[in-house]
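Please decode residue identities from the backbone states below.
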């Protein structure tokens, strides 16, 4: 799956099979289901989940919490918008699958 396919999949009723938890959370974030996305990543100890977790807290405007999760992910908070960030994270994670 590439980013174009991932973006198209947001029109479906459910995420595509076989996504990593971090990508599944991004799928829900892309559909504005913050709570579902957060539930998926909140207890996942991996750096990919931490990166998505950071993005989610950035979306809600909780920058102190977001900064904590960016550090856990070994990432810095981007300067661009949150929509751009969602696609950037998705593209990076899809390349890693």
């Amino acid at each position: 799956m590439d980013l174009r396919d991932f973006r198209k999949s947001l029109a479906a009723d459910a995420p595509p099979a076989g996504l990593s938890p971090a990508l599944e959370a991004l799928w829900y974030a892309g559909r504005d289901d913050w709570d579902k996305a957060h539930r998926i990543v909140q207890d996942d100890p991996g750096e990919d989940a931490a990166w998505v977790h950071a993005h989610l807290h950035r979306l809600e405007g909780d920058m102190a919490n977001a900064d904590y999760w960016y550090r856990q992910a070994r990432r810095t908070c981007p300067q661009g918008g949150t929509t751009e960030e969602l696609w950037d994270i998705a593209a990076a994670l899809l390349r890693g699958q």
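Observation: Residues 19-96 form a domain with the Serine Threonine Protein Phosphatase 5, Tetratricopeptide repeat fold (CATH 1.25.40).
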